[in-house]
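Hi R.,

Here's the chain you asked about this morning:
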Amino acid sequence: MKILITGTAGFIANHLAILLLERGDEVIGIDNVNDYYDTNLKEMRLNRLKSYSGFTEVRVGIHDRAAMEQVFAQHKPQRVVNLAAQAGVRYSLKNPYAYVDSNVLGFVNILEGCRHHGVEHLVYASSSSVYGANTLMPFSVHHNVDHPISLYAASKKANELMAYTYSHLFDLPTTGLRFFTVYGPWGRPDMALFLFAKAISEGKPIDVFNHGKMQRDFTYIDDIVEGVMRVLDNVPQSNSTWNANTPDPGTSSAPYKIYNIGNNKPVELMYLISVLEKSLGKVAEKNYLPMQPGDVPKTYADVDDLIRDVGFKPATSIESGVERFVDWYRSYYGI
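And the predicted structure, written out as tokens:
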């Protein structure tokens, strides 16, 4: 297939693009390589794709309406995976407009491109952050998620609502994926595991929020992209049993679906740190801090729908995943 992937200089999209190229798909990769974090890392990720004859790079931002219209008109993708976004919960407190430009305006451009060019299936990144103030565990796609506690989370919830509207009005098949704390080789430098590895390697203290009492459903990158690929191949159909009197948020009478992709096994932050310390062979100096605005104390993914519909459940253990990350980190930085 010809597949348009946005955010190919980013963590998840880069891994997905390689997986699809290796199975023989043609990939049109979009990224504007912004400086939210180290652009050298982004360029190195892109270099991993340039050796594939089926890869075409388009260096634009998804918020650029004219550029996105041209991309869809020129390349005519069959399917689209939108993984470009302004990421980060805490950064949304400092620069909210970046989230509106990329996550809202940019997503409208994606939806319009899909609508007007006959795209068979749009898969897009949502986030576990949409569960916000919810405390019922594990988080299910069939739960109400109307209480986001950061603008980032609100922008991802907005994506789900916007996608539903296009599925309903224009019969555009859309699938939203709520990712749970993704980690692994080539990861984002602003994520906890990367920050911890850097600080510990340099003999600097690490900031441990909520005094180490956080729990996260850490999900290894290979599991994430395997899940995305399987969902991409599974075009959603209308649910004939959907009842408007008792509306189920996870499905619809339109061709619209939502899935969690998480490891289904929360890990305490202090245990993650201990595994990382063991892999690095160093003990971290810890700076214990209170909970930060926009953070939640625990995430835990219910993945029953993913298992039922595409036959997949993430299974990489935190011990194995952290070891693989540390191997990459040492190799990349020459440690």
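Residues 189 and 195 are 6 Å apart (CA to CA).

Let me know if you need anything else.
M.
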